[in-house]
Amino acid sequence: MIRVLIADDNDLVRRGLAEILAAEPDIEVCGTAETGEAAVELAETCAPDVVLLDLTMPGAGGIAAAATIRRTAPQVRVMVVSCHDDVAHVRGALGAGALGYILKDAGAADVVGAVRAVSRGEPCLSPDAARAVQHLSTVTVSEPTTVRARARARHRSRRGPWPRR
Prior knowledge:
- It is a single chain.
- The protein is α/β, with parallel strands linked by helices.
- Helices cover 47% and strands 19% of the residues.
- It contains seven helices and six strands.
- A six-stranded parallel β-sheet has the order 2-1-3-4-5-6, with helices on both faces.
- Strand 5 (98-103), helix 5 and strand 6 (124-125) form a beta-alpha-beta unit.
- Helix 2 runs parallel beside helix 3 (61-72) and helix 3 (61-72) runs parallel beside helix 4 (87-95).
- The longest helix is centred in the C-terminal third of the chain and has 13 residues, at 147-159.
């Protein structure tokens, strides 16, 4: 049984993730939290195998919570569930010890699969997060930092600077 703690300041997201995961026979939701601080406290008391963390929560936020959880409970694996696909957020989460990073637009099967993979100690990144990680070695300050912004920039560079008529 995989024990999961869900931390997100959005009640709808927390409940939705809890419902999706609780429907799986091998996953148990052992707690939910609205803040990073509450997630850290619950990670110590409910003994999860995996903590799902949003990055932008009130208070310390997901990156600080991930670092604290990894430091105080190294056996707990952290997976970020976020709407941010930019290099800074992905880098911050992975640097804080997150083993997984998926975007909130992922499907239910993707979330379940990612939780299972992370619980086994396998890194799991959504395609956009993986592209951001690949981009880390080539990013410069003048380049767009989100996957979508880079795609728009590539599209603009192919068509030239003048609008077509």
